[in-house]
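Lab meeting, item 3. Inverse folding demo.
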């Protein structure tokens, strides 16, 4: 936790010289290969670090955003700069910290989140939730914000302020996202925001494009103990072929009824949501193929990679399924080189602007990837 504070609490800041970091160590120990799209983005990130400028990296889900950061961070560390990678979610900090520790073995790294034991460490590379950035004032030469579209950062001005005030006056700011908001997309088109796109995944296959299937008034059917026939057929096909699937539902209140119906098709089907105490265990069982189909809320819209799955959305017309959420959900399919394709179906009771915009954004990225020679057709 941040710790309790009142308006009469004494705040102390250091006005002396900053500690020097060891510049003799070659920071980056990584022998991986970047795709053509990643190489372009990596160069742009390094340029932003060198020039203390701002950059948006607009990379499709599964493009390999983290690897794109390595060269720029290494350049910053080797010149004594202090770097922060901020993200709205604790689980991303826990995932990123060991990856950075592996490729920057000689660098002091702090991982900061609620309850973290590193919160009093002074480190050259910090991986932190955006909440934790409220601890810092003009501390970082390079600020990288991952998943800038994710809740709660996307709607919380306090967290956006935390990013701003934790940077040095002269510093670089790099945003990463697969789904920039409408305003940022417009600024990119009009040339008002410096950005670079990675429109294709490293395996050079197009992103799965969602198909729309009419499901009628599915909630009315559900209250009578039934699900739409097209959805049942879709699920039966996956069960028959042994293909795993994620099914997204808009409301926790509906999940119990949906799960009861689905378990009539296969008793091993499970469901999870944010308050589920067995959430991590169920995701692991799904990874190990012990669960054929997993029913979920938007809790799994990002941050989970399963090699070979299809994806469905029940009630994709619901307000919770924003353009960003639907793009991320579709991005769960076709992520691995071994299984680069996957079916994505939005079962709906009326098409929404979010559904159309999500599909349009995916198609635009595929078109750009083909035109740039990053996708094989």
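The presenter then showed the designed sequence:
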């Amino acid at each position: 936790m941040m710790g309790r504070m009142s308006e009469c609490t004494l705040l102390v800041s250091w006005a002396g010289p900053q500690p020097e970091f060891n510049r003799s160590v070659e920071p980056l120990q990584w022998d991986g290969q970047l795709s053509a799209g990643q190489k372009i983005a990596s160069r742009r990130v390094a340029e932003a670090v060198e020039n203390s400028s701002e950059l948006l990296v607009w990379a499709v889900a599964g493009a390999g955003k983290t690897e794109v950061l390595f060269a720029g961070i290494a350049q910053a560390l080797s010149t004594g700069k202090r770097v922060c990678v901020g993200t709205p979610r604790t689980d991303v900090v826990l995932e990123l910290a060991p990856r950075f520790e592996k490729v920057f073995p000689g660098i002091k790294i702090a991982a900061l989140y609620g309850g973290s034991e590193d919160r009093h460490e002074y480190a050259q590379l910090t991986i932190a939730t955006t909440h934790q950035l409220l601890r810092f004032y003009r501390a970082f030469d390079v600020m990288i914000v991952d998943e800038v579209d994710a809740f709660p950062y996307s709607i919380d001005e306090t967290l956006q302020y935390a990013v701003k005030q934790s940077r040095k006056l002269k510093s670089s700011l790099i945003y990463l996202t697969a789904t920039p908001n409408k305003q940022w997309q417009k600024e990119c088109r009009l040339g008002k925001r410096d950005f670079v796109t990675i429109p294709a995944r490293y395996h050079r296959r197009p992103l799965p494009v969602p198909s729309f299937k009419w499901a009628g008034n599915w909630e009315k059917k559900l209250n009578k103990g039934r699900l739409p026939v097209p959805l049942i057929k879709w699920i039966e096909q996956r069960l028959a072929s042994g293909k795993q699937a994620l099914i997204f539902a808009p409301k926790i209140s509906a999940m119990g009824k949906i799960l009861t119906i689905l378990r009539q098709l296969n008793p091993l089907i499970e469901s999870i949501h944010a308050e589920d105490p067995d959430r991590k265990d169920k995701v692991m069982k799904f990874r190990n193929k012990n669960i054929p189909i997993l029913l979920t809320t938007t809790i799994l819209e990002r941050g989970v990679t399963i090699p070979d799955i299809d994806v469905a959305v029940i009630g994709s017309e619901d307000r919770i399924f924003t353009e960003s959420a639907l793009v991320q959900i579709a991005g769960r399919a076709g992520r691995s080189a071994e299984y680069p394709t996957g079916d994505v179906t939005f079962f709906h009771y009326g098409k929404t602007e979010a559904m159309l915009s999500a599909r349009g954004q995916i198609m635009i990225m595929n078109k750009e990837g083909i035109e740039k020679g990053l996708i094989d057709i």
